[in-house]
């Protein structure tokens, strides 16, 4: 069962080949490598690990280079895992990997950011949220570490009024620098650090004219995610009048520690790993990481290794799934100890309309508010420069320098979505003399509408509407249109809907582990913003706002991080796996019309490969009834099923010298006690039956009885034993088995659910059955 199927092997070979090609294009050039060390292998003559690490680097490098280049070591890691980051040539890295005590040498990876109504939409009204947080005085002691672009401390979202003193157990600090002083931290922002050595080693010194070499956030992304996690309530929050109301984070009484790891040129793994290591040492309870850097095997994924160490220390880790949807197998951050979050819409949007000269009206969205206003009811000339209404081409994307003023001046220009940022297209149109823009989705985005703070009157429309509008512009000699921006609308149906951009499964590293884990709001999210950046993030945009509306799995990840902080405050003794289980088993899979969740990419029902266990339900997650718990040793035994060599496994054992105990029955990774159940039938058609085992822990009423039900499948019968679980004490553990018997090998995976129901609780697990194609 542990063997990889041919598709997986091919997929991993392509990934690794691409990684190696991109990171080793120039052999002689110095690059940053993350070096994982076996802490226990340090020889006795050395008094500390830095001394040992330095000798290792010296042993593989030319002494003359040290005089010319200075110290090669950028960071040492000692809490979540053990090792260092150092500048090495490819040849030096290869020699170092052969040294005793060196577990792995992994090239630097460049990561990208996965870029008010949500508390109400999630059921966290003011009364409910306050009630949840009023349970204990210790609630204020939950600290969420946010790895991002820093923080804008003056934002009202980080007001610490009414918060208790910072707990003495907190070990973090506030680092100072340009634009950031000690007093910028308070009882809400309890820590702020910067990590740039890896970034500067790869790109050169930070230009302090362009960004702050301090925790201060120029970009805005980090401020937005931190406020989504734990922002204090701010009345009257809005973006240029849109989304007016009270903005608050998921856990408004939690504290924030900002770890700035992202800069203008990206986020580098050596810096990210140093931040994870430091955050764990500082004492964070939750880590929120809205970043992604592709996918690698577990033993070559430094973030997976670092977060394994964080999990061992009891830290819950939430990561964004990525914005690679709707393409399948587009996920990042797929390790089972990470909670991987996809994005969904909410029941609020920002409607706008396009009215053609034919009087036909099309619905869209927009966040435009500016001095340029199109006359209401007036029709303006309409132009589309593409050659085909159905398939975009280079001329249709409104790229910089691509528009001729003679063709667009005084007109509304149709631009296809893609290639360049959406708002930048409007800037191009405006510079060429256009008076407005219609942004049309392509097949990639389908009918998903993302509102933007445009620089000129602009409306975004779906793919179907876009085709009709483009066809009209291309075939009518005097095509005209008018645009109208209608403000904010709530109560939108259906919602939630899976965002088309949200990255999709399956998880090809381990098909037995469902990813993403769940969905959270990630479309048109209002939260705090940097005072140094325009809402459009364009340098030519001189507008400044206190709040901004963004979309991306970067926005959904902090929702889950904040809810995890809520759960942690109520249940401080729960493991990270128990918190994840509570989130997954209480998630819902129907929208506000009581229909199955749909996919914005095509308006078809979504599957667990799109939405995971479903959409988060915070209030239910706080009281889930049962949890599927997993300890560090069980996660390690899962890794033992993944065809990793002893030396590869060692990168996960540095902290505790773990060994494979083979606790997963049949050495089957599907027997990891995960809240989702995935039966993977091998290529061998003689294997007709499979049994998976799960154990649940009672965290609800001491005495309770749960009965099971499971959805029907076309390709297999599913039997659960026992059919009833009778608990007599709290924290009691009971096990059950799920047996799958093939009736008909299906060409596609089948999806369903398994539900344990008591008088007070429902505990649901998604079920996936996959038959690998015969060899």
From TrEMBL:
**Domain Subtilisin-like protease fibronectin type-III span(s) in chain numbering:** 671-769
According to its UniProt record, which residues of this chain constitute the active site? Answer: 148 (charge relay system), 221 (charge relay system), 554 (charge relay system)
Q: Which residues form the PA domain?
A: 379-468
Checking InterPro entries in the record gives: PA_dom_sf, PA_domain, Peptidase_S8/S53_dom, Peptidase_S8/S53_dom_sf, Peptidase_S8_Ser-AS, Peptidase_S8_subtilisin-rel, Peptidases_S8_3, S8pro/Inhibitor_I9
Domain (Peptidase S8/S53): give its ranges.
140-600
Query: Is Glycoprotein set as a keyword in this record?
Result: yes
This protein's UniProt keywords: Glycoprotein, Hydrolase, Protease, Serine protease, Signal
* PANTHER family hit by this protein: PROPROTEIN CONVERTASE SUBTILISIN/KEXIN (PTHR10795)
Q: What is this protein called?
A: Subtilisin-like protease SBT1.3
| Protein species of origin | Brassica rapa subsp. trilocularis
């Amino acid at each position: 069962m542990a063997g990889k199927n041919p598709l997986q092997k091919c997929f991993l070979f392509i990934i690794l080949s691409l990684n190696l090609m991109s990171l080793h294009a120039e052999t002689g050039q110095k690059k940053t490598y993350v070096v994982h060390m076996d802490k226990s292998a340090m020889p006795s003559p050395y008094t500390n690990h830095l001394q040992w690490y330095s000798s290792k680097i010296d042993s593989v490098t030319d002494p003359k280079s040290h005089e010319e280049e200075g110290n090669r070591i950028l960071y040492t890691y000692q809490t979540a895992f053990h090792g260092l980051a150092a500048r090495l040539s490819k040849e030096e890295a290869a020699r170092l990997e052969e040294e005793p005590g060196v577990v792995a040498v992994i090239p630097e990876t460049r990561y990208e950011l996965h870029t008010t109504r949500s508390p109400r939409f999630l059921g966290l009204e003011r009364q409910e949220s306050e009630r949840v947080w009023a349970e204990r005085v210790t609630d204020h002691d939950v600290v969420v570490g946010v790895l991002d672009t820093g923080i804008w401390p003056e934002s009202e979202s980080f007001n610490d009024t009414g918060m208790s003193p910072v707990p003495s157990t907190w070990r973090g600090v506030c680092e100072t620098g340009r634009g950031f002083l000690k007093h910028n931290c308070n009882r809400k922002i309890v820590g702020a650090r910067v990590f740039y050595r890896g970034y500067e080693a790869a790109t050169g010194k930070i230009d302090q004219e362009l960004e702050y070499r301090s925790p201060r956030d120029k970009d805005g992304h980090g401020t937005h995610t931190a406020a989504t996690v734990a922002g204090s309530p701010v009345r009257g929050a809005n973006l240029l009048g849109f989304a007016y109301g009270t903005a608050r984070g998921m856990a408004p009484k939690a504290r924030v520690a900002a770890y700035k790891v992202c800069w203008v040129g990206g986020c580098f793994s050596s810096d990210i790993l140093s931040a994870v290591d430091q955050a764990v040492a500082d004492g964070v309870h939750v880590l929120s990481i809205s970043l992604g850097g592709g996918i690698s095997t577990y033993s070559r994924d430094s973030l997976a290794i670092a977060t394994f160490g964080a999990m061992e220390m009891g830290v819950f880790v939430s990561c964004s799934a990525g914005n690679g949807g709707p393409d399948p197998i587009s996920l990042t951050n797929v390790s089972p100890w990470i909670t991987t979050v996809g994005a969904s819409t909410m029941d609020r949007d920002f409607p706008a309309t396009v009215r053609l000269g034919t009087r036909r009206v099309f619905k869209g969205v927009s966040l435009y508010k500016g001095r340029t206003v199109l006359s209401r009811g007036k029709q303006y000339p309409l132009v589309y420069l593409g050659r085909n209404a159905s398939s975009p081409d280079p001329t249709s994307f409104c790229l910089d320098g691509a528009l001729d003023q003679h063709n667009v001046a005084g007109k509304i220009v149709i631009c296809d979505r893609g290639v360049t940022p959406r708002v930048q297209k409007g800037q191009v149109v405006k510079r060429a003399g256009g008076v407005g823009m219609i942004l049309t989705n392509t097949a990639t985005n389908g009918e998903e509408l993302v509102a933007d703070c445009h620089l000129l009157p602009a409306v975004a429309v779906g793919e179907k509407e876009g085709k009709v509008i483009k066809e009209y512009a291309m075939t009518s000699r005097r095509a005209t249109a008018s645009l109208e921006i209608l403000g904010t609308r709530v109560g939108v149906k259906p919602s939630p809907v899976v965002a088309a951009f949200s990255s999709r499964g399956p998880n090809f590293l381990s098909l037995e582990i469902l990813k993403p884990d769940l969905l959270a709001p990630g479309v048109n999210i209002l939260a705090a913003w940097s005072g140094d950046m325009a809402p459009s993030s364009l340098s030519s945009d001189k507008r400044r706002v206190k709040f901004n509306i963004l979309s991306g799995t970067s926005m959904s990840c902090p929702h889950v991080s904040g809810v995890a902080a809520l759960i942690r405050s109520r249940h401080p003794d729960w493991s990270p796996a128990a918190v994840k289980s509570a989130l997954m088993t209480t998630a819902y899979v129907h929208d506000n019309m009581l229909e199955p969740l749909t996919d914005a990419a095509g308006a078809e029902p979504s599957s667990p490969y799109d939405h995971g266990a479903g959409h988060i339900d915070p209030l239910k997650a706080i009281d889930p009834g049962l949890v599927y718990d997993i300890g560090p040793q069980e996660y390690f035994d899962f890794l033992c099923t993944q065809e990793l060599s002893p030396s590869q496994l060692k990168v996960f054992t540095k902290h505790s010298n773990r060994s494979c105990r083979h606790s997963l029955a049949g050495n089957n990774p599907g027997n990891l006690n995960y809240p989702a159940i995935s039966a993977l039938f091998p290529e061998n058609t003689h294997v007709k039956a499979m049994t998976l085992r799960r154990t649940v822990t009672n965290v609800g009423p001491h005495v309770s009885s749960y009965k099971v039900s499971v959805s029907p499948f076309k390709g297999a019968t599913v039997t659960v034993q026992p059919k009833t679980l009778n608990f007599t004490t709290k924290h009691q553990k009971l096990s059950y088995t799920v047996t799958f018997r093939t009736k008909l090998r299906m060409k596609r995976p089948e999806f369903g659910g398994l539900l344990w129901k008591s008088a007070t609780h429902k505990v649901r697990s998604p079920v996936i059955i996959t038959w690998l194609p015969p060899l």
